[in-house]
Write a structure and sequence with these properties.
Length: about 475
């Protein structure tokens, strides 16, 4: 039986600000080890019976980041479907279903989709794969299958699944049950009742179903989403291992989650079999700093730390440092998160409020809500070293064989100094090379390009001077990465 993993990698993860931001959300960070959450999600499929190469669905802006992270761990993917705009998880799953339907049926019938978020932690991979083996024949028979996490205690941060009668003939150690209802995040007293009842499981956001069943149920409950996605996918185009749905048509699609669009209205309706498979595999959505603290390895005082940290008389804190020494003296129960341009200090029991903080930063038009000082681009990355009145200094890292677009700027000039590697420079009609400790000046309005023809990363310090230094001051003429060029 062929299983088609569908990995949803388009989330924002704003409750883990300032580490997770819109331009570099939590699924691309290594929070609990050396691999990112996205990479761990892909590796989790290793050795799974009948698993095909995954279908990935992600934001257009993250396409090279996703592809690069999958390549780093030596894995492949069937396709990376690029959402022109975020429309939540129901349209994302529908794009994958449209792709699989367009491929034609598997040898044993319809395509079975295993839908997984890319930003979860599952510590017991063997238990997860056993749950998938239990779910697969149920999905093949036409059921909508949800994976429900066995609660370790009361939890107000998760939705719950209310279970009904056991499914006969399943023969699993953790018996599947019928789903009677999805329940919203409860208050503390209700969560305690659910945890003690034995009839409620946490909603993991992991699902399994035939692609045709998903499409049929979506058409039944949300024909507006089903129609919009089908039109956008049908008018899209392939670009190597990327697939781009039509931008304008997809923008017309309503935004909705899997739960609200299909799972909740279908549960207990009697129209389609809806089953939950218990999952007891050390699952967490790592949705807040307290969850990361709970999954970490504490020291003798209960502190979970990462980076250059010094503690004295401090207990039960989560402290993460990216760029400098963080010293914590005599503090308790805090989340202290240091990045190059922002520091969060919050009580661990208030970390659910971080999402609201990010919204307020957005309203204040603070760039820190969305971007780090280090910004990833398809050709590599740049990091802002210093910004002042009419000037900005950046550190550019250009990957082997990569180049920035052929471009010019209306409002600024640039001065490039090579600090590592050899740069091929196009400046106006001139084409030449710069080696380490050599430099060139690019006047305002001059067409220019940097390319790395070497086998190692090229590093350049760029000094910008001008009346406006925004990233939108780019007149682009040619680009290797299919980004829009100027008319």
């Amino acid at each position: 039986m062929m299983i088609h993993p569908v990995i949803l990698a388009g989330g924002g993860g704003t409750r883990l600000w300032p580490l997770s931001r819109h331009e570099y959300p939590k699924q691309y960070h290594a929070l609990l080890g050396e691999r990112s959450l996205l990479q761990e999600t892909v590796v989790r499929l290793d050795g799974m019976d009948g698993a095909a190469s995954p279908v990935l669905v992600s934001n257009e802006d993250h396409r090279f980041l996703v592809a690069g992270q999958i390549g780093e761990i030596g894995r492949t993917f069937a396709v990376l479907i690029l959402e022109p705009a975020g429309r939540n998880t129901a349209p994302a799953v529908s794009l994958a279903a449209e792709y699989l339907s367009a491929k034609g049926r598997d040898e044993d019938g319809d395509h079975i989709m295993l839908v997984m978020p890319s930003d979860h932690v599952i510590q017991d991979v063997a238990a997860f794969q056993e749950a998938v083996r239990t779910a697969a024949p149920l999905a093949a028979e036409g059921s909508l299958v949800t994976f429900g996490v066995v609660p370790s205690g009361p939890e107000t941060g998760y939705g719950y699944i209310r279970t009904g009668d056991p499914v006969t003939g399943a023969g699993a150690a953790l018996t599947p049950h019928e789903v009677t209802a999805f329940v919203e995040k409860p208050d503390a007293d209700t969560a305690a009742e659910y945890a003690a009842s034995g009839r409620h499981l946490w909603n993991s956001g992991i699902f399994m179903m035939r692609s045709s069943v998903w499409k049929s149920e979506l058409a039944r409950h949300r024909p507006d989403i089903a129609g919009a996605v089908a039109r956008a996918f049908g008018s899209g185009r392939s670009d190597g291992k990327f697939y781009r749905p039509d931008y304008d048509l997809f923008a017309q699609c309503p935004s909705e989650s899997i739960d609200y669009a299909v799972m909740e209205p279908s549960a207990g309706s009697g129209e389609t079999s809806h089953v939950v498979v218990p999952l007891d595999a050390g699952w967490s959505d790592v949705g807040a700093w307290s969850a990361l603290w709970a999954r970490g390895e504490p020291d003798r005082e209960g502190n979970v730390t990462r980076g250059d940290i010094y503690t004295d008389g401090s207990r039960n804190n989560l402290i993460i440092s990216q760029d400098r020494l963080v010293a914590a003296v005599g503090v308790e129960d805090l989340a202290v998160i240091e990045t190059s341009d922002a520091v969060l200090v919050a009580r661990r029991d208030r970390d659910q409020d971080v999402k609201q903080l990010v919204e307020e930063l957005k309203e204040l038009d603070r760039p820190e809500y969305a971007v780090h000082l280090k910004v990833h681009r398809p050709w590599g990355s740049y990091q802002i070293l210093e910004t002042g009145s009419n000037y900005q200094v950046k550190h550019l890292t250009i990957d082997a064989g990569a180049s920035i677009s052929l471009q010019s700027h209306q409002h600024r000039s640039e001065h490039w100094v090579v600090v590592k590697g050899v740069a091929t420079v196009q400046k106006g009609d001139d084409l030449f090379r710069l080696r380490e400790n050599e430099s060139t000046y690019v006047p305002q309005g001059t067409m220019h390009r940097l390319r790395n023809d070497g086998d190692d990363p090229l590093e350049v310090v760029e000094v910008q001077v001008g009346s406006y230094l925004g990233e939108d001051d780019i007149q682009r003429y040619e680009d290797d990465y299919d980004r829009p060029v100027s008319d």
